[in-house]
Design a protein that fits this description.
Elements (H helix, E strand, L loop, with lengths): L6 H17 L3 E6 L2 H4 L25 E6 L4 E5 L5 E5 L7 E2 L1 E5 L5
Parallel strand pairs: 2-5
Antiparallel strand pairs: 1-6, 2-3, 3-4
């Protein structure tokens, strides 16, 4: 019911640690994208249309879970066909995760 302390958070933190140790950069934050971020004007997914068609293509290039639960059983997700909606977490064999990685601008 919560991303914090979940198995998924462990996967994301492990990915963060691998990036930091392999590339010698300090990552400020590693987490899953939220429903609120996806429906923002900056990204353009739509709850009403169950779609991310107006979002940049990289948003729906893979199928993945977000960090936002709809209820106790359903989690918001994005599909490669630009579908945006919530599904039961039991469909774990068709979804991946796609971490949001925040690094310092000073590295560039």
């Amino acid at each position: 019911s919560s991303y914090n302390g979940s198995v998924v958070e462990g996967y994301v933190n492990n990915y963060k640690n691998i990036l930091e140790s392999n590339y010698g950069i300090e990552i400020e934050e590693a987490r899953l994208i939220t429903k609120e971020e996806l429906i923002s004007d900056d990204i353009g997914c739509s709850v009403e249309n169950s779609s991310c068609e107006d979002a940049p293509r990289f948003i729906y290039l893979t199928t993945y879970w977000t960090g936002t639960a709809e209820n106790e059983l359903d989690i918001w997700n994005v599909h490669t066909h630009a579908y945006f909606g919530s599904s039961s977490y039991n469909y774990d064999d068709i979804f991946g995760i796609r971490p949001v990685i925040v690094i310092s601008k000073s590295l560039f």
